[in-house]
Each structure stands twice: as C-alpha cells, then as structure tokens.
Amino acid sequence: MSQREFPPFCLSRLLRNTFRPREGERVCILIDLPDIRLAKGWAFLENDQFSIQRHAHDSFYRALHDGVMTELGLTGGELFAYEETGGSNLDLPDLAVAPDGSELSLKRDVYPNYDIILCISTYSATAPLTAFAKRIGFRGATLHGVNDIILRSGLAVDYNEVSMDAEKLRLALTRADHFEIDFQYGDDTHTLKLECGRQEAQKSHGICLVDEPDVANLPAGEVYFVPTGGEGRFVMQYADGTLGLQTVEGGRIVRATLLRGEQATIDAHNTKLASDPVTGELGELGFGTQELPVSGRDIQDEKILGTLHVATGRSDHLGGDLTPDKFAKANNATHDDILFSPSKTPDITVTQARMHRDGETIVVLENYQPAAHLRDALNQPDN
C-alpha cells in the first residue's frame, strides 16, 4: 500500500494541469449507461448500481457548475449519456441523450462543438475518442471506473510531476530491442519475449495541451510500447479467476491451456482466437510509473510503479496499426489490458523483466519492484 499523502481532489487543479484551458473553451461530460433512458431526469442517480456515473455527476458535473467553470473561464458544462458498449475501447454508438430528454449525435452535435470532453464511464473509451480527437481537434480525458480511492489519489496528483517522472522512465526504457518477462506460477516459470524494434517509448502522463488534440487516460502514469513481435508463454488470469497458459507466436496469442479453473473459459478463448485471430495480437507492453494505492480498478492499478501490463487487441490509439476494421467481428475490436500486480494476480509473480538494448541486458523489474536501473532514473534531477 502506498504511504504517499495526497491533497484533496480538486477538479479545477486537475483540469488546469491536464488541459491548461483557454478562456471561453467549451467543456462537456460523457457517461455510459446500459439504458440511455436512465439519463432523462437524472434517473440513474436513484440507482446505487451506477456509482461511476454518480461520481461523474457529483464530483465533475456539479463541481463545474459550482464554480470551476467560472474559475477557469470555461463554458458549456453539459452532460450526455450514450449506451454502454459492453467492451473495453469498442467504438461508441452515435446516439446520446441529455438529462432533459433531448437526443443528440456524438459525431454531429458533441465532438465538433466542444474543446474539452471528459468521459467518465464503465467501459474505457480511450481508443475511439482518441481517433475522433485527432480527426476533429478536441482534447479529452477518459476516466473509466472512477471510485473514491481514485478520486483521493490518482486524480489528486499534480500531473506536471507525474509527467516529469514518466519522462525519466521513458528515457530509461526507450529504444529497446526487446524485453523478456519471466512469469512464475507454482514451481514453473514461463518467459515471454516482446520485440520493440528500437522504437521510441511513449508515455501516458496526463497532459493534453492546447493545439495538441489527444485524449489523456486518467489516472495517468505509464511508459509503453507497441510490440512489433513476440514469442513465448505467459500465465493469464481470466475475469472468472481461471488461470490459463498463453502460447505466443508471431506476436499473437495462438492458444490457451488450462492451469486452474474452468475449462469452458479456456475453450471459449480458444474458439475466439480461432475465429478471429487478431484478438490475440499483443498490442501493448506498459510499465507503471507512479506511487499510488491499490484501487481495485486496472485504470489506476496499472499505473503503480513495479507493475506491468500487456494488452491484446486494437492498438491504433497507441500508434499501432491494428484498427477495428481488421477484426472479423466488430464487437471483438477491443483493447484489453492484462495487468500483473500483487493485488490483481497474487498467484502469478513477475520475477524479472529484462530490457535488451544496444547489446546490454538490463533488469528493470524484480518481483513487482523497480530494479536499480529504474530507481536510478527516478533519482535523476528534474530538468
């Protein structure tokens, strides 16, 4: 558990640090609901099931109207709901509803008419919103899964400091030839090799400046790559707790084998891999850069220093070339993070992660702790 102390959550500080908004810019909030009719008359606020959407209303919408917009010189402040997608980073439906019952088109009425869009949702919308932001020119933030812990920690930080630490670690990891990651389960150790082709590492640092259309994934704080290939095996924990050994060939998971749990879960995964092979493509390798408390939500917990995650599926929002049109089924075009951390995967240990660069082998993580290479990088003076 992090011993770091955090200031109280302050929306004006978050927006100022993330967007540095200009006078007169328009801001709005998007939420997702299983039935968008629940947006009418704020009906969703009567149901405890929608805690994320309540945070969107109480901590964001109300704060905007209780002085934050005036303080920052912002206009707008509307909230719109769209139907939840049911999957991480699936394309969003176009229809949205306002609390007064009016219907709108996201593509026609929202994206072109707001400068800053905050999406506070159950399912991540980072990939589709990033595509529209770069095409249309708005800035945004996706904050899926917000809970009390995240508000009091990951969203209460100074993102200028987060950005500086992320840059130090980015420089420590950039232009790697490949990484090797050892996963221990029981008495067995399995190794995954991910090629990076000496690409420039990227960072998620929580800042979207004026004239740089993009979408920040908040809480931020990671260094990541889009792998160019991969081979080996790793242990994955499924949503139901089943553990499966994943075999990777040519940068894709090609089959899963049951280690513990439900064979039906493994069979369903293998059927999906066979019918839509790109669902197994490893489209991200990420390393957390922040000292944060465990929140129980991957959106924050994958940003904790010492953790790592890989992801399958679409990678276009990260600079990769796997776009939704390349999937056999539209509802398979997700980007799904696979987090490895003591809290999320207690039975799987990343005993070591090694970077190979310029003929050197450098240990970067050991047993969910940053190795000397990363600690030394963080101790470098701020520029």
Q: Strand-and-helix sequence, N→C?
A: HEHEEEHEHEHHEEEEEEEEHEHEEEEEH
Structural class: alpha+beta
Q: Which percent range describes the beta-strand content? A: 25-35%
Q: What is the approximate shape? A: globular
Distance between the termini: 29 Å
Instruction: Give the low-confidence spans.
Output: none
Rg, nearest Å: 21 Å
Share of helix, binned? 10-25%
As laid out across the biggest beta sheet, the strand order is 14-13-12-8-7-18-19-20
Key features of this structure:
383 residues; alpha+beta; Rossmann fold; 2 domains; eight-stranded antiparallel β-sheet; seven-stranded mixed β-sheet; 24% helix; 31% strand; globular
Lay out the secondary structure.
Elements: H1 11-19, E1 26-33, H2 51-72, E2 75-83, E3 95-97, E4 103-105, H3 106-110, E5 116-119, H4 126-136, E6 139-142, H5 148-152, H6 159-173, E7 178-185, E8 188-195, E9 202-204, E10 215-217, E11 222-225, E12 229-237, E13 243-249, E14 252-260, H7 263-275, E15 282-288, H8 298-301, E16 308-313, E17 335-340, E18 349-357, E19 360-366, E20 369-370, H9 372-378
Notes on the protein architecture:
The structure is a single chain. The protein has 383 residues and is of the alpha+beta class. It has two domains: 142 residues, Rossmann fold, CATH 3.40.50; 220 residues, no CATH class. Helices cover 24% and strands 31% of the residues. The strands form three sheets. It has an eight-stranded antiparallel β-sheet. Strands 4-3-2-1-5-6-10 form a seven-stranded mixed β-sheet. A five-stranded antiparallel β-sheet has the order 9-11-15-16-17. Strand 19 and strand 20 form a beta hairpin. Helix 6 crosses helix 9.
